[in-house]
Amino acid sequence: MQNINVAVYRSIFMVVFISLVPLSIATTIWSIVTVGWSGSLFVGVGTLLYVFGMFIMTGMGNVPLNESLKQVDTSHQEVVGAWKNYYKRWTRLNTLRCIFGIAAGVSWIFFCLFCVISKISVCYICG
Fold this sequence. Notes:
Layout: H1 2-8, H2 12-34, H3 37-70, H4 78-117
Helix pairs in contact: 2-3, 3-4
């Protein structure tokens, strides 16, 4: 797990994970201007779910756990206790992050459905 934690910081995952924060905020602002408050509610809720449920929870929960695991010497007996503590907490946080991520995606899909049902064109290329 220590090797995975090191590798993730150098992967494209981090670019996408971090970039979705300003992109979702910009999309929320764009939807308010383009569609109005009623339709943008879905985008705003999705953005809040992503920013707080995925991004901030990762920074305040999973990252500190990863950092504490990095300090454990794998050649000593303490690794068993450290792993049990890490595994329980990290799995719980990761499950919550997945739920928030799915809920954010569903909220963004509802925005798309709202636009289709309301016959609102949000694509300037398509008209």
